Amino acid sequence: MIWTIVGILLVLWILGIVFHIAGAFVHLLLVIAAIVLLFKIFSGMRGNNSR
């Protein structure tokens, strides 16, 4: 699920750069998605090491 969101945001980000459409909003969403992805990766690592 998270990879789908990241992929969609990446495509929208590229389209925003190419066509200059809602650039700031897409950049903000991309940063939020990156933070969520990093949080999910790090919390998953912590959960796997505790076994």
What distinguishing features does this structure have?
51 residues; mainly alpha; 2 helices
Structure description:
The protein has helices spanning 2-19, 23-49. With 51 residues, it is mainly alpha-helical. α1 runs antiparallel to α2 (23-49). The longest helix is centred in the last third of the chain and has 27 residues, at 23-49. The two termini are 25 Å apart. The model has no long low-confidence stretch (mean pLDDT 75).
List the helices and strands and how they pair.
Elements: H1 2-19, H2 23-49
Helix pairs in contact: 1-2
What's a concise summary of this model?
This protein is mainly α and 51 residues long. Helix content is 88%, strand content 0%.
Overall strand count: 0
Distance between the termini: 25 Å
Oligomer: single chain
Decide which structural class fits the backbone.
mainly alpha
Characterize the overall form: elongated
Uncertain stretches: none
- Overall helicity: over 70%
Mean pLDDT over the full residue set: 75
What is the number of helical segments per DSSP (H or I, 4+ residues)?
A: 2
Percentage beta strand: under 5%
Query: Secondary-structure element sequence?
Result: HH
Largest sheet: none
Radius of gyration: 14 Å
